[in-house]
């Protein structure tokens, strides 16, 4: 039987989301290894848009500016989320040749990830991949995004273990929404994972599911943080107040 | 299906040889990279885009990140990206040279990459720095076989 490909696992807690995104993009583009990064909550609420996100279309900018909520444009595709201590992030970075049964395109990668998570949620709720979201029934609890390079890809997910109802008010109803959303507002569309599974159970079951496909080796953040003179240029950036003000003016 | 019919009609009008490999169209007078970009060479100038196979697998393109004019591109390296579904996907240059024109139509109409990958969905024009590199690219027959083999593996 062929040996399973190696996957390095980094387990984080409360790491700022911008730091996580910088780490992910650098590993995607400069590392030869497969990685799983799990960040159990991020320290402060942030809005995170996809690469082509337009603040005027996606955000209640005046509220965002008033409350000084940081807005990040990330390097991967996909939609807008507001993340905080109640969000659990799980990221897979893979060499396409190590997951050779998966064609390196969005839908096959999404399909592969949903099979992995179907093991995590076996016997728990009514887990289903709905278009590009993870849902229990027709309520979304996990949003996905990807970035695909020539020989590698990243698939990252923000899981709503819990959320602040007030924070959802910063997000507009997006123009590009999945059909199953049926024009529901945020609170009718999403649900919390905490109603289905304890936090630590989810993380343990995710690592267990990974071990079915990879030889998982835990490593720590210090071992992978880039030295100070590294020249890697990150795409994920916090939008300035000026950029948001200009977007509000249209 | 409508895409294939449209492609055949357009090809007849433009007097380009087209053959259908069943699902995605491949044009005979272009060269192809194994990362699914095409290049049309006219002297020392080249037009670059992504293939019908690529656009079909990527899904509806909602955004194209175009390179800046004057950027140096290197064969095999990323020069831009497309966003489709929830993914950004790198576009890799099949040739080396300097970007002299980009298709600004894609800012407002990124779907041209899906609807017209070889014509209106072109992405950039490059002033070539090394015509010899073209020998490393696939012709339409080889690319067609390459796509079949890739799809058969999955």
Automatic annotation (TrEMBL), chain A:
Superkingdom field: Eukaryota
BPL/LPL catalytic domain boundaries: 17-214
Gene3D superfamilies xrefs: Bira Bifunctional Protein, Domain 2 (3.30.930.10)
SUPFAM superfamilies: Class II aaRS and biotin synthetases (SSF55681)
Spans through the membrane: none
Pfam families attached to this UniProt entry: LplA-B_cat (PF21948)
Descriptive protein name: BPL/LPL catalytic domain-containing protein
Automatic annotation (TrEMBL), chain B:
Keywords attached to this entry: Lipoyl, Mitochondrion, Transit peptide
Protein location: Mitochondrion
Cofactor note: Binds 1 lipoyl cofactor covalently.
A cellular-component GO term for this protein: mitochondrion
Signal peptide coordinates: none
Highest taxon, organism lineage: Eukaryota
Predominant subcellular localization, coarse grouping: mitochondrion
Keyword Transit peptide appears in the UniProt entry: yes
Pfam families xref list: GCV_H
Cofactor: (R)-lipoate
One example of a Gene Ontology biological process annotation: glycine decarboxylation via glycine cleavage system
PROSITE patterns per the UniProt record, alphabetical: BIOTINYL_LIPOYL, LIPOYL
HAMAP family on file: GcvH
Subunit structure: The glycine cleavage system is composed of four proteins: P, T, L and H.
Function according to Swiss-Prot or TrEMBL: The glycine cleavage system catalyzes the degradation of glycine. The H protein shuttles the methylamine group of glycine from the P protein to the T protein.
PANTHER family for this protein: GLYCINE CLEAVAGE SYSTEM H PROTEIN (PTHR11715), GLYCINE CLEAVAGE SYSTEM H PROTEIN-RELATED (PTHR11715:SF3)
Family according to the record: Belongs to the GcvH family.
Protein name per Swiss-Prot or TrEMBL: Glycine cleavage system H protein
Organism: Daucus carota subsp. sativus (Carrot)
